[in-house]
Amino acid sequence: MADNILLQVQGLAVAYGGIQAVKGVDFEVREGELVSLIGANGAGKTTTLKAVTGLQSLQGGEVKFLGQSIKGRGAWDLVKQGLVMVPEGRGTFTRMTITENLQMGAHIRRDKEIQADIEKVFALFPRLKERRNQLAGTMSGGEQQMLAMGRALMARPKLLLLDEPSMGLSPIMVDKIFEVVNDIHQQGVTVLLVEQNASRALELANRGYVMESGLVTMQGEGRTLLSDPKVRAAYLGE
Ligand code: ATP
């Protein structure tokens, strides 16, 4: 099962008008892996994730999830198949409570285990449990990030895509978020993590890809990339 490819991206190209944001990118995520996609601001990471989830149309190349092209399939269908993204900026329902937000995450499901899964999310994020009846809009950025991740888990993802979960958070909250990303992976969820925080993202990753100006310029095991002098010079300020 370890070699079962969940996501396969080949020759992915995306343009915004005349701007070529992604210029032919190949990568894959296998079942059980945590894969990190790192790179500077504007490298094309978010655009890649949007293309993978069908939110951005492709100029070229192909994206396959569970062996099937995502072309022409709506977000609903992809979520139902297990491809679930937590977008940059979180996008929680601010006028709903935490519990209601988590219930919304399960809207595609018709089984009887939704309440049990809410309890599992609360076990992962005790802070959310304490505030279960609070409106999401009144929570801190870090708490909203936790909620967005909890809501995504309620869809029972096969592949969880996280777009810059640590962005804009305090150092303590950054620690907490990476801890939880690791826990989620340890619990068996396959994760594709997009991050500017290269050291933290590569520490957790089985494998990583480095993006620069719309291209994948390096790839390898997380630890190997982390100790690579070029990566250290470009992304870790050394
Ligand atoms: P960040 O960390 O800032 O999100 P990123 O690596 O995710 O960076 P993208 O957001 O994918 O990079 O941006 C890649 C390139 O595409 C950039 O040059 C950006 O200015 C451009 N771009 C992104 N979104 C749009 C858009 N909606 N319209 C036009 N250009 C865009």
From TrEMBL:
<keyword id="KW-1003">Cell membrane</keyword>
<keyword id="KW-0472">Membrane</keyword>
<dbReference type="InterPro" id="IPR017871">
    <property type="entry name" value="ABC_transporter-like_CS"/>
</dbReference>
<protein>
    <submittedName>
        <fullName>ABC transporter ATP-binding protein</fullName>
    </submittedName>
</protein>
<keyword id="KW-0813">Transport</keyword>
<dbReference type="GO" id="GO:0015658">
    <property type="term" value="F:branched-chain amino acid transmembrane transporter activity"/>
</dbReference>
<dbReference type="InterPro" id="IPR052156">
    <property type="entry name" value="BCAA_Transport_ATP-bd_LivF"/>
</dbReference>
<dbReference type="GO" id="GO:0015807">
    <property type="term" value="P:L-amino acid transport"/>
</dbReference>
<dbReference type="InterPro" id="IPR003439">
    <property type="entry name" value="ABC_transporter-like_ATP-bd"/>
</dbReference>
<dbReference type="Pfam" id="PF00005">
    <property type="entry name" value="ABC_tran"/>
</dbReference>
<dbReference type="InterPro" id="IPR027417">
    <property type="entry name" value="P-loop_NTPase"/>
</dbReference>
<keyword id="KW-0547">Nucleotide-binding</keyword>
<keyword id="KW-0067">ATP-binding</keyword>
<keyword id="KW-0029">Amino-acid transport</keyword>
<dbReference type="GO" id="GO:0016887">
    <property type="term" value="F:ATP hydrolysis activity"/>
</dbReference>
<dbReference type="InterPro" id="IPR003593">
    <property type="entry name" value="AAA+_ATPase"/>
</dbReference>
<dbReference type="InterPro" id="IPR030660">
    <property type="entry name" value="ABC_branched_ATPase_LivF/BraG"/>
</dbReference>
<dbReference type="GO" id="GO:0005524">
    <property type="term" value="F:ATP binding"/>
</dbReference>
<comment type="similarity">
    <text>Belongs to the ABC transporter superfamily.</text>
</comment>
